[in-house]
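The material for today's practical consists of a large collection of protein records. There is nothing in a record beyond a sequence line and a structure line. As an example, a complete record with its sequence and its structure tokens follows:
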Amino acid sequence: MPIIYKICPRALWREAEAAGGFAGAPIDRQDGFIHFSTAAQVAETAARHFGGQADLLLIAVEADRLGAGLRYEPSRGGDLFPHLYGVLPLDAVTAVDDLPLGEDGRHILPAGLPPA
């Protein structure tokens, strides 16, 4: 059961919970798919795209529950990143964790994920 990750502002995720699904952040909707990261990619994603941002959540998603809409496509440095073409169903979510900032301004990832 591979787990992929979405970094999301808390308020946007609360809207998704109320709506019953996550259609993506503005950048996702602009690009036509929801951006995810693997466990090995999430620290760099946090630093590169969310540096210094507070009030974020780290959403863990069971990749196998996303069906054919999930594709691994080349992105940063040729790495394959998971992209979901469609709405994220909330029943695929396995955990929602706070993604706090440390004193150094970097996000503190939950235990078990590799640091940046």
User: Anything to note?
Assistant: The chain has a mean pLDDT of 93. The chain has one domain: 3-98.
